[in-house]
Amino acid sequence: MIKKALDMFEGKAIIVGLDYELYDYQAKLVIAQASGALTWADLWRRLLNEPLLPLPEDSSIFRVIEKHSSPLGDYRTALIHRKNKVDNNMSDDNINCQEQVSNKRFLPNGNEKELIKKVQKYIRNNYSLVRLTFTMLDKSTIDASKPICKMFYDNDIFNYETAIDGDISYRNVMVFNRDGHDLIKTSFYRPKAKPHKKGDPRFWPWGFKKSIEQDTLIYITTFENTAVIIPLTEPVCTDAHLESVFGSIISHVNLVEELINEIKQFSGRWVKSCNPSKKSPKDVGDTLELLLGLDINNRSDADYKSSIELKAKRSSSKTADTLFSQVPDWNVSPIKSVRDMMLTYGYLSTHKQRQGYKDLFVTVSNIPNPQGLFLEVDYDAEQVVQYHVIGSKKEVTAIWLFEKLQGRLIEKHPNTAWIIADETLIDGEYHFNYNKLELTSNPIFSQFLSLIEQGVVRYDWRGGYEIDGSGRVDKGHAFRLKSPKFRDELFGEIETVSLI
DNA sequence: GAGCGACCGGTAATAGGCTT
DNA sequence: AAGCCTATTACCGGTCGCTC
């Protein structure tokens, strides 16, 4: 009986896998989540109790896939990988076309991505993207998603929480158009819904229909406590229009030039490592800070004149970028310390020098890891939450407050210089050659949260504790960006500078 | 060839017990 | 009560090796 039920789900997974170009295990995960389970194994356990569980509907399957697709890029996340074009040949072209059309509805196309970057040269506040559908224009409403509600609340624009269903409030909203921009009277409200249920938060700028076409992607952000709507089309989203509102591009050009000139004193040639006899991961960064005359530090702010954070890497490295280290807010977390965390969820150390330790060197992403730990973003409570799951039991373990994370992210990365070095051995001594630099500025916090949801930003536990004793290791428990290739998702525009 | 889990080297700040 | 010492915690800088 159970076998048969599982077979049905597996069959559905195979079909979905083919339709959406997923690996088997990914398709299974999608089916599991669309059925309300956390993982395939979890679904299996649920079927034991409830063998007649229906197959998930296509709409919920699509929702899961949509949830795991990035709003900013045309790639799939950790959960859903795009297969190589090469092994696509056997798939049905019609299905492919339909799939592409439905995905394109949400994702920015190439031109729109360029316009997003252009906007972000001028204004870096939190933002959301909405693709205007036929229904929105027809009914004259835009649904305010959770991040949009939060953005309006944070900037004293509108509070949907205290709004009474059916009461319509009006605020002026800055709407960009072909001639520049206008302040447009805009309605904010929750419609009267069923009893015991709050109406979905909505807004609509008066006369928006006249100035906008269906399927336009709009960029919603805030500026000096006013909501701003920028349709991402060429004639509207111009430098002239943006500059007239937000002023000329803010830059740290001088400080950056100063840094580049300092690095050029020793770039493009081999310089001896600060620890030449031994190869250690941190040397590439420590040597750079030494050359620049900076103290090797563990300060939590940026390295160079508190304004530019330096990140050095070996050119051979393709590993995750450490964004910043931050332990959870213990006073609001069920787990009360790192030690508590390690001893509760750690595994017995296999390391020779740490016999009798519980280690936890693991990455926590949006899907459960081998310890059953995963992250979720709770926009209502304004927290990033680490859950632990065994079977169908899911419990909160640790919590980071938005406020703290936002502070850390902005404090640490106002401007970041990612410096690439080659490494070589000369006469038995290690040397570095710093020769390339990538510059990023002002990370976008809403994007940070979105990337957590997508599994692109993850949290690493990096430590261990002696079970009955005081021995410990701690390499810094940190939020990290899965791969350097996602830098532009978090930071928007990136500038590459050659140092040779 | 990239993803992923596991893992490496450090220092600064702070709390609390003990001595003076 | 001031000062000192030590234990503890929270940050800093990263890569490696196996699998799919």
Quick overview of this protein structure:
InterPro entries: MvaI_BcnI (IPR029127), MvaI_BcnI_cat (IPR043004), MvaI_BcnI_rec (IPR043005). With 500 residues, the protein is of the alpha+beta class. It has 16 helices and 21 strands.
Note the main attributes of this structure.
single chain; 500 residues; alpha+beta; At1g16640 B3 domain; Alpha-Beta Plaits; 3 domains; seven-stranded mixed beta sheet; six-stranded antiparallel beta sheet; 16 helices; 21 strands; DNA-binding
Topology summary:
Layout (H helix, E strand, L loop, with lengths): L1 H19 L3 H11 L5 H10 L8 H10 L25 H12 L5 H13 L4 E5 L2 H6 L2 E2 L2 H9 L13 E10 L2 E10 L12 E4 L2 H4 L5 E7 L2 E6 L7 H8 L6 H12 L6 E2 L10 H9 L17 E6 L6 E5 L12 H8 L1 E2 L8 E8 L8 E6 L4 E8 L2 E9 H11 L2 E12 L2 E13 L3 H10 L2 E10 L5 E3 L3 E4 L5 H5 L2 E5 L2
Parallel strand pairs: 3-7, 9-16
Antiparallel strand pairs: 1-6, 2-5, 3-4, 4-5, 6-7, 8-17, 10-20, 11-12, 12-18, 13-14, 14-15, 16-17, 17-21, 18-19, 18-20
Helix pairs in contact: 1-2, 2-3, 2-4
This protein binds a DNA duplex (20 and 20 nucleotides) through helix 12, strand 9, strand 10, strand 12 and strand 19.
